[in-house]
Amino acid sequence: MSDIKKVVLAYSGGLDTSVIVRWLQDNYGCEVVTFTADIGQGEEVEPARAKAEALGIKEIYIDDLREEFVRDFVFPMFRANAIYEGEYLLGTSIARPLIAKRLIEIANETNADAISHGATGKGNDQVRFELGAYALKPGIQVIAPWREWDLTSRESLMAYCKERDIPVDFDGGKKKSPYSMDANLLHISYEGDILEDPWSEPEEDMWRWSVSPEAAPDEPTFLELEYRNGDIVGIDGEAMSAATVLETLNKVGGANGVGRADIVENRYVGMKARGCYETPGGTIMLRAHRAIESITLDREAAHLKDELMPRYASLIYNGYWWSPERRMLQAAIDDTQGVVNGVVRVKLYKGNVIVAGRKSQDSLFDESIATFEDDAGAYDQKDAEGFIKLNALRLRIAASKGRNPLDGQ
Questions:
Q1: Can you give the CATH number for the domain in which 215 is found?
Q2: Residue 376's domain spans which residues?
Q3: Burial bucket for residue 300 (CB in 10 Å: 0-12, 13-18, 19+)
Q4: Where in the sequence numbering do the catalytic residues fall?
Q5: Mind listing the pLDDT tens digit for each residue in 22-64?
């Protein structure tokens, strides 16, 4: 402990990380630098400055990372059509490598000896933060208070504050949600309370970003999304930055009941956990990106991408964004996206994202070949006979040797 003179803490301004500030000061006798990231969580981050100052912090970093988050992390992930275990759009997972990157940058700027975070010892975030930190600065020391202290509940944290006169208004006069929530521009997550029983349906008033599909408008909403190199660069003819694209899709999608998910997932640390997620913009992006790829990507390139995707998604979920294998996969994925240009028209209706049209100058769709009408000789149907017989050759040989596929059924 005596080797640690300065620590950079990922600081939200809430109860846990405010306790961590004083705990680090008390137990390590070190100077604490706080870092608060604005990644679109929908709450004011500036009050964290006043809270940090009240705790005696001299070096306070509050950074607006919204554009970098979407441009350099969310968009590359959606080029891969990444989805974990068939349902989770990785909203929390993809934010952690950016926070780890900035923690290390600040540690270098301030000559800090260590970084610290408020992730618990049961979750994935501790893994994500620390794998990212070690990848970017292998000699950095990491302090994870939840793995060291004996404060195991909100009540014990509050008692710690009272004993040490920590001057923080944790609730801001508001009724505290019973759920553990994490939000950024891509999603908001909910865990805990009744959600710990997988049989319990979430309460309607839990959801923050979306109306229920039943309460969504009776008329559909149409959007035209313009793609360039696999990324959305405009909506309905208006050019937009990456963060503005996602903000817009969240607003319109949420208003139409899009993006709710209730999942039991397999955490990297070994347990199953139930969480609920709202990802309206991401849900639209995934559906639309697959639509524009459907007309612009070669068949085998598209199929290979689909085979790689689960591996890519697991790497992000498990915290390996900065690994060589993720970067290798990203290079392969990005190489396919130069032709992923055009426009996708989507219809949003009562929780559904329906593709209503797609077009591209790079389209491989050839109507003269695909038509059910007279194709004027563009496709010779007689060619199919030889194609089928060649592909059936191994099956016919096996059957002729008595290897009947019905045997044993």
A1: 3.90.1260.10
A2: 367-400
A3: exposed
A4: 16, 96, 125, 180
A5: 999 999 999 999 999 999 998 878 889 999 999 999 999 999 9
